[in-house]
Amino acid sequence: MTYHVYGIGNALVDMEFETNELFLKQKGIEKGLMTLIEKDQQEALLESLEKEFGIKKRASGGSAANSIVAISQFGGKTFYACKVADDEAGEFYMKDLEKAGVETKLADIKEEGVTGKCVVMVTEDAERTMSTYLGITSDFSIKDLHLEELKKSEYLYIEGYLVTSDVSRNAAVHARKIAEENQVKTAFTFSDPAMVTYFKDGVTEIIGDGVDILFCNEEEAQTYTAKETLDEAITELQKIAKKVVVTLGSKGALIATEGKRVNIEASPVKAVDTNGAGDMFAGAFMYALTQGMSDRDAGMLASESAARLVATFGARLEKDVHQAILDKYLN
């Protein structure tokens, strides 16, 4: 086994801004969701944001990428399969992942196009709203998977956002099948309520006969299963996942396996920016599992990590913070 976790997902340069609800209303942007927009729309939005607020942070992002970076920063061995263009943003993305200790093959393949970008708008209540132009990452396909690296991994981690593109969804389905054939365990995250609302059939196709771990929040769980209570939703989700991990914000998290449910308390913190909290939780949880930790210990590590993240601006923590969290839970 060469890698603890091999991830696939969109390669998006995150551009984060501190803004307000009035701005979102003026621009007709639905708060709290990820919305796909066209290149010219995003350029106009960026111009308005930079003029009115100024950019706060730029980082290599995407749901799965954030989780993979977290695993790497904790000390796990990771590989990320994704797609960027031969442009400044693509070069930045590749070097930023490399700096975080994530292995890729991005230096081997450069195509003409535009690297995807995600405009992250954080309001006063710490809620994140995203407007995304996928660019070349929407063409992420089977040929971009690097299957030999996948076969040498303990886990395959798939982000739900891949469902929005037919070629990317097909790549995710293919990766899951290859993982199953090579005894690589599979983890999947719904990523966003919009994915299970508007792309439910595609999500179901990616999950196929089932996954080892499913990550979601309360809204995603109930939307996907069409159940009125979380308890009913979890029972339904257990039919497609051996382990269901539900993040509950300030209420902590719940981990459900056959015949057992573990409640994880939230670490009390003043939220500054919720962007990437779910990604951090998933990354920390998966790192812990690959190190042989129990579900409860993994959940506690993940909860602490997510709390530390929402108390800072951006979807990343510094490496020394990861180490401090590890020291707290390993000693």
Description:
This protein is α/β, with parallel strands linked by helices and 331 residues long. It has a single domain, classed as UDP-N-acetylmuramoyl-L-alanine:D-glutamate ligase, CATH 3.40.1190. Helix content is 42%, strand content 22%. The protein contains 13 helices and 13 strands. The strands form two sheets. Strands 5-1-8-9-10-11-12-13 form an eight-stranded mixed sheet, with helices on both faces. The chain has a five-stranded mixed sheet with strand order 3-7-6-2-4. Helix 11 packs antiparallel against helix 12 and helix 12 runs antiparallel to helix 13. The two termini are 27 Å apart.
Look at the structure and name the CATH superfamily: Ribokinase
Fraction of residues in β-strands: 15-25%
Q: Which strand order do you get reading across the main beta sheet?
A: 5-1-8-9-10-11-12-13
Overall number of structural domains: 1
CATH class value: Alpha Beta
Write the element-wise H/E pattern from the N-terminal end onward: EEHEHEHEHEEHEHEHHEHHEEEHHH
Shape: globular
| Backbone CA Rg | 18 Å
CATH architecture: 3-Layer(aba) Sandwich
Low-confidence stretches: none
Structural class: alpha/beta
Strand segment tally: 13
- In whole angstroms, the N-to-C terminal distance is 27 Å
The whole-number mean of residue pLDDT values reads 93
Assign the CATH topology: UDP-N-acetylmuramoyl-L-alanine:D-glutamate ligase
- Helix proportion: 40-55%
The major pleated sheet works out as:
8 strands, mixed
Provide a count of the helices: 13
